[in-house]
């Protein structure tokens, strides 16, 4: 019995263009990282993403690329996980063609905008984005672990940025018109205490 080997590509969908950011995030320019990693619309489904990847492979590599994916049906491409909330996906493809799929994903540049009509999935308009492959793995488990690790790191980074923003505003408020002398004296006292501790 022959075992078909696959590769799992963990990918992010990023929105670097400020004109594509949601209104709630674009009004808060102090943390553009949240806007770049903004959620994707529900118009993008796992099946539609797989179709987009197959079309991109066909556009770049023609019949040869489709043949490497498994023929006209190109059943070799499957989206195993798609989270519109985190704009993250895991795509399974044949091991022999993972570089073709990777390059096709890199050249994709848009996701469908949501439609006002619930029967239609997309409107034909696209929201500009960047697809970034983060990890290529031989097992689904390793790709999932990397996605969880990156999500946790992003949460910690955003929380740290928010806390620094709050403290920065506090210090700016103190160091306003007449408070800069107070901040300088507090800094001098803490330096003196640090010197005494060193001795």
CATH superfamily of the domain at 6-139: Ribonuclease P, Pop5 subunit
Count of alpha/pi helices: 6
Instruction: Specify the helix fraction band.
Output: 40-55%
Backbone structural class: alpha+beta
Element-level helix/strand string: EHHHEEHEEEHH
For this structure, the CATH topology of the domain at 6-139 is Alpha-Beta Plaits
CA-atom Rg in angstroms: 24 Å
CATH top level label of the domain at 6-139: Alpha Beta
User: What is the average per-residue confidence, as pLDDT, rounded to a whole number?
Assistant: 76
Q: Order of strands across the biggest sheet?
A: 2-3-1-6
Low-confidence stretches: 177-183, 192-199
Give the strand content: 15-25%
N-to-C CA distance = 74 Å
In CATH, the architecture of the domain at 6-139 is 2-Layer Sandwich
| Rough outline | globular
Largest sheet: 4 strands, antiparallel
Brief descriptors of the model:
199 residues; alpha+beta; Alpha-Beta Plaits; 4-stranded antiparallel β-sheet; two-stranded antiparallel sheet; 6 helices; 6 strands; 49% helix; disordered C terminus; ribonuclease P RNA binding; EC 3.1.26.5; Pop5/Rpp14/Rnp2-like; ribonuclease P activity; Rnp2-like_sf
């Amino acid at each position: 019995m022959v075992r078909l080997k696959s590769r799992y590509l963990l990918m992010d969908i990023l929105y670097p263009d400020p004109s594509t950011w949601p209104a709630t995030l674009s009004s808060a320019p102090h943390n553009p990282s949240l806007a770049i990693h903004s959620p994707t619309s529900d118009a993008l489904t796992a099946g539609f993403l797989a179709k987009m990847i197959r079309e991109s492979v066909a556009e770049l590599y023609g019949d040869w690329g489709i043949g490497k994916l498994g023929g006209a049906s190109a059943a070799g491409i499957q989206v195993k996980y798609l989270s519109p909330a985190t704009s993250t996906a895991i795509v399974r493809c044949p091991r022999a063609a993972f570089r073709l799929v990777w390059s096709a994903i890199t050249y994709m540049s848009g996701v469908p905008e949501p439609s006002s009509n619930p029967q239609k999935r997309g409107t034909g308009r696209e929201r500009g984005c960047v697809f970034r492959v983060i990890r290529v793995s031989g097992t689904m488990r390793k790709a999932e672990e990397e996605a969880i690790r990156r999500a946790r790191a992003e949460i910690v980074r955003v929380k740290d940025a928010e806390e620094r923003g709050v403290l920065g505003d506090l210090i700016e408020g103190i160091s306003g018109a007449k408070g800069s002398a107070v901040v300088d004296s507090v800094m001098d006292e803490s330096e003196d205490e640090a010197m005494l501790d060193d001795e």
